[in-house]
Recover the amino acids of this structure.
């Protein structure tokens, strides 16, 4: 065989091998979780499950659109860990029923609704802040370690048990457990009180509760072989006190989402990007 013939044959072989070498497999992707996963309050609304307040622009749909994954989205607003194995509403089956043996990717955000941690802390501290006109630390003074105690005694074991069930249903899947982006800044911002009526001394208290919850989520993820997606750095400076266009989380008052204290469209997009970066997708 001449050198020219050999070269032509080599080029032909590469041309034939090219598509196979660059072929990609479509990921079977299941999204589980609560309102931070569902994108509750972000328009447009996904009407396939109206009770769940699921958005067409939530982070699972952003991940799927950018990766070409085949998405089954069963995220649902107000979900708790128990709703992985129990029907949350009539016609809304347990979330893990969406999982299969051949599921490739699972993402979820869960735990904030267990023991009413988020809504309980926001209502309690917001009410206390209004009563003191934003002064002192009335919420911390009244509730002390009670929120943290429930996170340790109840939320953590429920999280770990739920993740173990996810692993049992989809043993070969990559499971990504997202933390919650910051709701409050690290220090009190007097200009924020009108939007988030938390007393100045309670701002670090509320943030510490969220940090504790995220630490427990990370611990449960690590112990069950899942990947934790950390927002402690990337969401810093994008809390609910920041102006529109900067904040990822809408404030309790005067926000732009119909569901306050939840991610907006920018927040959902950034959650998707951090998840893809952490998993090496996209």
């Amino acid at each position: 065989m001449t050198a020219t013939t050999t070269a032509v044959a080599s080029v032909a072989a590469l041309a034939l091998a090219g598509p196979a070498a660059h072929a990609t497999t479509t990921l079977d992707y299941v999204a589980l979780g609560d309102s931070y996963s569902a994108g509750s309050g972000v328009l447009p609304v996904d009407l396939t499950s109206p009770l769940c307040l699921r958005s067409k622009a939530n982070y699972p749909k952003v991940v799927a659109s950018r990766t070409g994954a085949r998405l089954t989205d069963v995220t649902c607003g107000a979900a708790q860990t128990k709703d992985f194995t129990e029907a949350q509403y009539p016609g809304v089956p347990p979330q893990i029923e969406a999982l299969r043996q051949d599921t490739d990717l699972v993402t979820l955000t869960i735990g904030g609704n267990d023991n009413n941690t988020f809504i309980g802390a926001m209502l309690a501290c917001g009410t206390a802040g209004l009563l003191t006109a934003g002064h002192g630390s009335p919420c911390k003074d009244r509730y002390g370690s009670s929120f943290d105690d429930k996170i340790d005694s109840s939320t953590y074991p429920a999280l770990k048990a739920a993740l173990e069930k996810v692993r049992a249903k989809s043993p070969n899947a990559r499971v990504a457990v997202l933390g919650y982006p910051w709701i409050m800044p690290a220090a009190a911002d007097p200009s924020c009180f009108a939007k988030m009526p938390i007393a100045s001394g309670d701002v670090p208290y509320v943030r510490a509760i969220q940090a504790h919850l995220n630490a427990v989520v990370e611990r449960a993820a690590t112990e069950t072989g899942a990947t934790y997606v950390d927002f402690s750095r990337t969401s810093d400076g994008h809390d609910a006190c920041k102006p529109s266009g900067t904040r990822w989380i809408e404030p309790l008052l005067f926000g732009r989402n119909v569901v306050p204290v939840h991610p907006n469209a920018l927040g959902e997009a950034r959650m998707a990007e951090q998840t893809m970066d952490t998993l090496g997708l996209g």
